[in-house]
Amino acid sequence: MESVTHDHHHDNYHPPNHQKSRFSFLLNPLRAWVDRIQVKNYRLAHLICQTIPCCCPFERDLKLFGRSFHVPPLCKLNPLYDNLVGLRFRALSYLSDECGEDVTKYIC
After folding, report:
1. Structure pTM?
2. Cα separation of 68 and 12, whole Å?
3. How many separate domains does the chain show?
4. How far is the CA of 108 from the CAs of 20, 25, 28, 54, in angstroms?
5. pLDDT at res. 16
C-alpha cells in the first residue's frame, strides 16, 4: 500500500472548527488583564476560590415526564473560561504553597 505525502505548507490554514470569531479581538485586553492578575493576598485568594466555581454549575440531569435529560456543561461557551480557570488555579496554588492552607474545601 502506498502512502501519500503532502509537501505543501499552508501558513494560513485553520481547520473550520478552530476559526476565531470576528469579535474575539475585543476580549483580548480583558483576557490579558485576567492573566496578569497576581494572587499575593490571602483574602483575594479566598474570594477568587469562592467566586469562581470548580466545576460548571450549569451541568444538570433533568427529569421531565419520566424521562431523563442531560444538560452538558455550558461554561466552555464563556470566552473567558480558560483565563478564569487559570486565575482560580493561581489562587489555589497561593493558598496551598504560600499560606500552607488546606484547599480541599475548594475542590469538587
Report:
1. 0.71
2. 44
3. 1
4. 32, 33, 29, 6
5. 44
